[in-house]
Each structure stands twice: as structure tokens, then as C-alpha cells.
Amino acid sequence: MSGIRVVEVAAWTYVPVAGALMTEWGADVLKIEHPEVGDPQRGLVTSGLIPAGGVAHMFELPNRGKRSVALDLKSEEGHELLMKLIATADVFLTNFRPSARKKLRIDVEDVRAVNPSIIYARGSAAGQEGPDAERGGYDLTSFWARTGISSNVSPDSLGYPVTMPGPAFGDVLGGLALAGAVSTALFHRERTGEAVEVDGSLLATGAWAMGGTIAGAYAFNQKVYPKSTPDRAPNPLVNTYRTADDRFVTLVMLESDRFWPELTTALGVPELITDERFDSHAKRGKNNVEACAALAAAFAEKTYTEWEPILETLNGAWAKVQHPLEVVDDQQVIANHYIADLSDASGTPFKLVSAPVQFNGAPGETRRSPEHGEHTDEVLEEIGLSMEQIIDLKVSGAIL
Fold this sequence. Notes:
Elements: E1 5-9, H1 14-24, E2 28-33, H2 57-63, E3 67-70, H3 76-86, E4 91-94, H4 98-104, H5 108-114, E5 119-124, H6 139-145, H7 149-153, H8 169-192, E6 197-201, H9 202-209, H10 211-219, E7 238-242, E8 248-252, H11 256-266, H12 281-286, H13 288-299, H14 304-311, E9 317-320, H15 324-328, H16 331-335, E10 339-343, E11 349-353, H17 376-382, H18 387-396
Parallel strand pairs: 1-2, 1-4, 2-3, 4-5, 5-6
Antiparallel strand pairs: 7-8, 8-9, 10-11
Helix pairs in contact: 1-8, 6-9, 8-9
């Protein structure tokens, strides 16, 4: 994306993640922020969500590599400067609601009036049409709760729906989809000359993630899709088991007739191969509770450290259930450069997961996020403003 300029008028995480991904792919992304408050995500540093004296990781995540330009879009001067920047851009990226876009005069017709060939990309909670088009939302509501993910991953015995596994879980997935869609729109424009509008939403992303489950629920007319706990997995070879040191191993050996002899031999219970209850996939499904119990008892005999070299000899897929901090030291993650080592503007080192795709065998360039308004002067000079004009705009409050 070298040579592509993106003007982003967005806040929080979902849509800004799309801009962040494009910076790793080479785009110049101009993050437009209010001169006084900036992106509300910056305020998390005072909300206890950032370690004292640490890096504002939840701002770094969706704003890596961008240039921050602080403009008051409600002022005539600020709006005029935004339109000048839009005139130089290939993509306009926003998550403002329809009424806010109209009020700020940044809707499609406003933007296309100064740049007819720009890709106009919107991200929202629940889409641009329908009764909830003006409603805001976060990934916990629109992605996780509304699409059935929460209800489907929560064991019935728990008594309540579980929350997301971590912050911005749905946001980063939705941002990835939106960045890919913008790339497709740019390719379409290059081939045809037509600039299109791109729309994505957290609701659409969550429904897509649940695609198989939603299709199955409809096909079988089941309000609640079948769920299972580890003690009664339908296929005992697609399950999670506890080791002696309270670690867990997840197996996904779908072809159970192929992998059952290998697995049971490795676990030290080869007698299960010919056990009449378990000597076929159909019988293991019928006697799944007993089969799960037999495998659970075997796994409980050794610690994970003892099991690891044994499991590495298997052809079937398995994985250690890791904690997030362990991922940082995962040798496969390190070998493939999936996590970047960075320093923030004050020089404090931190780590950030890189974009999940690579080109020509190399990761994209991951850079720190900008300070509030860090590049305002630089960018305005690029579009022809003199330092005297910039100072006057600062005095008026139109820029930072």
C-alpha cells in the first residue's frame, strides 16, 4: 500500500484497527483527532486499564504507525483543512454514526464533492440500514452478545453467559475484515476506475464468525445449538484434557478411526484400541462419556512437561492451552515474527502483535502510535500551509 493515503475520522478500536493494519502494509494513515480531547481511547490511561508508568497498549493496538493531525471539525477552518486532506487521499475511513457524519459534513456526498475517486469506508455497530443504524455499540454488545457467540460458548451449568476472552476481541477481527475490504475496493478502482463505498459492522463480523453455528441452528430448527462439556464430548478425540499439573491439552483429531490407535498407544493405554466400547468411531460416539473418562484418566498420569515430547510424535493435531503471556515466548510465534518489539514515544519498550498476514515471507512494518496531534504541523505543511498560517490556526483553536 505504499503511496496510498488514508484519512481516518474514527475513534476507539474497531475501525481504527483497519487503519492500523493498513499502516503495516505501507499506507500513510492520517488520524484526525479533536485538538482538546483527541481519541477517547487515550483517556483509558486514567481509567485504570493501563499499568502505572506503562505503555498505553490499548491505544497502541489500533493506532500503530499513524500520523496524528488534530483538527476541530466543528470549526470552519478545521473542516476546510479536513477537506484539503481528503482531496489528497485514496481512502476515507470513519465509524461516526449517520447523524454525526451529516452534522460534521463528512458524509459520502461531502467527501466525494472534493475527491470523486476516494474509497469511502464505514464501520458501525450494526450496519447502515435498519432500526439500529443510529445506535452505537461495542464488540461486547454487537459482536459477542447479539450474534449468539456468548450464549453458545457458555456451558449451561455455568448459569450465565461468559464475557469475551479479552478486550477488543471482536474489534480486531472486524478491523481485519474492513482493511481487507478496503484493499479490494482499491483493487477494483485500479481495474475499473470506479470508487465504491465499503461497509462493515461488528454485527456482521460476529454473524460471520458464527456462520456455521447459525446455519446449523436454522437447518435443525434449534434455538440452542448443541454444546458439550469435556466429560461428554461427542468425539472424544476433539476435546480438552487436564494433565497432572493442572495444564490442559486440546486435541482435534477429526478422523478418529485413524488417530485412536496412535493416541491411545502414546498415552500408554493401548488396550483401549481393542476395547469393544471404543473400537470404532460409531462406538466411541455412543460411549463417549466412558471414552472421555478413559482419556482423561490417562492424561492425568503425567505433567504437561512429561507429555509434550510424547505428543510431539503424533500425527494428529493438538496444542497446549496457553495463557496470553505465554504466547509472547512461544517459539513458533517468535520464529515467524508474529509479535513486534517497539518503544512508545517516551522510549518505554513494549510488545505488539503484528498484522496476521505477511508478504514475500516478511512481516509488515509495525511502528508506535502517534502522540496527540504529533504530526499536525508536518501534514499541514505538506498541503501548502505556511508556518504563519499554522500558528494563526493554533491561536484560533482550529488545530492543536
